[in-house]
């Protein structure tokens, strides 16, 4: 199935015939009838597996529980990508271990609930997400997020949250930020919060921007019907905090990171 | 410092920190409803203004009552007068 076929099925194609419409409708129908039960099965399988696998993994590997849980979540992401792959083509650019020093701060644009599962495409598992308060209220994900040490940027206040982030960086984790703070409704980058960039400037840890496109075709905000898509995940060049100075260092860094992400997303969509 | 200077400094600082459009920065603009700031921005806003005016603001109880940019200008002017 080529790119044009994916764009036709995702509804962005032009000049459709009646046969195309029928074919597209059937594929979307099959996709949703097949994938939703599989995703629910995946959630149940991982939840049931966790009370056995997590303690056993800690015992065998002698790694801290949060790291084990992050590995577990990473495997969950890989399984999710495998499940989606008959209907979604995943394209990876620059996702190699040498482009992600440890520790690092990764900033991603946010288009869909499914962006988080794309974590399975990355070459490492020790990633700590910084999120708002609401994901911690999803009953089937919240216990794993807490066990993994994910940082709630809202509930305990920004200062406390940034302190937790610093502790994760000290332990050589990769911190993941969605600097827009929410999913984009029009595909364009929204205003960036400064947290990730302040943390970078204060801690001396580099920022790696990552652009995700296509998940808004797969499952846009506020919709429940999945559509075939090409999901592209691209790591951009690293930004070093040592290149910025003064009171507004984080502002300058934020501007440059955002500009590079806008350029990349526009090029992909052209 | 006259009020226009305060307005200019506040507008410039907030526009830079929060990517705000300066034409939307009117005294009656609500910080949350009109300018799109939220709870995650509150701490940053105080730090930015402290840097811009060179004094601590975070202990001021009055800062909690600020709703609009006009409230913010008045708060800065009042706190400078009492400093």
What does this structure look like?
The complex is a heterodimer of chains A (270) and B (83). Chain A has 270 residues and is of the alpha/beta class. Chain A has helices at 3-9, 18-61, 65-84, 142-147, 158-170, 195-203, 215-218, 249-269; strands at residues 88-93, 104-108, 127-131, 151-152, 174-177, 207-213, 229-235. Chain A has a 7-stranded mixed β-sheet, with helices on both faces. Helix content of chain A is 46%, strand content 13%. In chain A, helix 2 (18-61) runs antiparallel to helix 3 (65-84) and helix 6 packs across helix 8 (249-269). Chain A has one domain: Glycerol-3-phosphate (1)-acyltransferase (3-Layer(aba) Sandwich). Chain B has 83 residues and is mainly alpha-helical. Chain B has a single domain (3-82), classed as Non-ribosomal Peptide Synthetase Peptidyl Carrier Protein, Chain A, CATH 1.10.1200.10. Chain B has 3 helices and no strands. Chain B has helices at 3-18, 39-53, 69-82. The longest helix of chain B is centred in the first third of the chain and has 16 residues, at 3-18. The model of chain B has no long low-confidence stretch (mean pLDDT 87).
